[in-house]
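Illustration: Thioredoxin domain-containing protein.
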Amino acid sequence: MSPALILSLETFNAQVLDASHEKLVLVDFWADWCSPCLVIAPILDKVLSEYANEVVYSKLEVDEGENMKLAGRYKVRGFPTIMLFRDGEELDRFSGARPAQFIEQFLQSNLNR
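Result:
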């Protein structure tokens, strides 16, 4: 399994928006003080390992550097917020800790769009 790509404000355009023209990019907007973020992290790691050929898994720690500007740009209101990008645009999102089955269905429904 490849680990999640760690994003920053400086790398977001290249690693998410540009890369999403090649394959789906999932971004986990999270914070280390957020209990649901810590709950969903290992679930995302496990589920995304099964989709490594189809989805790029990345994480954005909103409290590091200028990263909160990205949360503002995408109107993220709570953490974690999980967003999928395709062709440089947001495709879908959900918020809060969810079980593996929900995440798999979320990915499947968007891979088939």
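Reading the tokens back as a structure: The beta strands are 5-6, 24-30, 55-61, 81-86, 89-95.
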